[in-house]
Input
Amino acid sequence: MAKNALSEHMESIFAELQQVADNSAFVCERADVDRLRRATFYSPIFKEFGLFNADFKVYCSNLGAINISIYKSIVSRIKDSKDRKTVSLMDSNTLGESTFFAFYQRSDGLGVNGLAPPSSFAMTVDQILLPDYAYELTLGKHVLFSNRDHIVSDLLETKKETLDDWAIELEVLLTTDLYWSRLVSLLPWIFVCWVLLSIILCTGYFTIAYYRRSLRHCVKRAIKNNAMEVYFQPIVSLNVDGQYEMEALIRWRSVYHGQVSPLVIVDMADRLGLIDELTWMVIRKVGDFYREYPLPLNDINISVNVDRHSLLRETFAPSLAGILDEYPELKGRLGLEVTETSALDAIDLPIMVSRFEHIKALGVHLSVDDFGTGYAGLDFLRRFPYDTLKLDQIFIASLKDDQFTRQILTSVTKLAKELNMKLVAEGVEREDQLNAVREPRG
Output
């Protein structure tokens, strides 16, 4: 900025000299002197103007007619300049100090020189630089103006800007006091920025921590890391020679949320689009269970709950076939319990029948879980009977006192016999409930 300001300052100097030259002639009459005096009076820079001819002799000034030859070194610089202009630093009787001179010559040989105190440049520089900066303005090899003598602090760094057209160089020296004063003045802003940054970082940290501890993220991570456990609940047959069965139940204790309900796990996995991954995890754990205890589990079937919408997906059966190849121990022993969650429409019904046929061909048993609480259609049961109907425990709880429920149980039992399906009742805990379940089957 300081270099630009000085360049503009120099341009204005020569613009003023050119204006004076345009209004002048090769004579020094009273009118010419008065004209130069007016130019001097209104000039913001120059304290004296002079006119010189093609022989480089000053013949007129605002003080009157004179006859002074310009130094040969200056003449040489004027001639060498493409714009026929130059600057110099010389002693002046008028100002009584080393004085700044500027020279400009027209194409016809008439020229104008002006002299100004070097301190006039300080005004231009001071508008850009703060008082705490030390600087030195040099013209050629001579110091035009400097305030570094007023700066008593240690000088740390130097920056130089050069105006090549006029051989002027501005050297700026930065001080230690300036650094410290700037730092002190910025401390409130630094503190505010530090507080804001701390708030942003803390908010980000706690947001990430909250998300990582959220149930949604924990369930997702547990499924991805295969971190959930599978418990096995026995299914006891009423017949002495009946086949033993078990049901795989998902269980998970979170570090942050404690024991989480299986219903919550399934619901969250469904929302996250991970319900199939959850199913494959459970089935693989069942395969590991068979592999770990091959002899005790030799004649025991294990069933796994599966979402009805998962069965409708085209990739379900091929993925299941891949797991059966991975765990041959599951073939002929694995069962899928389909929960009644929604009714099948005319489009989904044939698709589900096709999926069931494919799954049955893999040697996997199929059963209806919690029959009577959902929307299982009798038409679907007749078109593709399950291997097992699993009666929800809500019917068992009211068998003793509710004649209507007993009639429903009787009808369901007859339906199971008619369709050649096994019937399983959940929640049989008392002898009267056991007798009530047995009665319709007698």
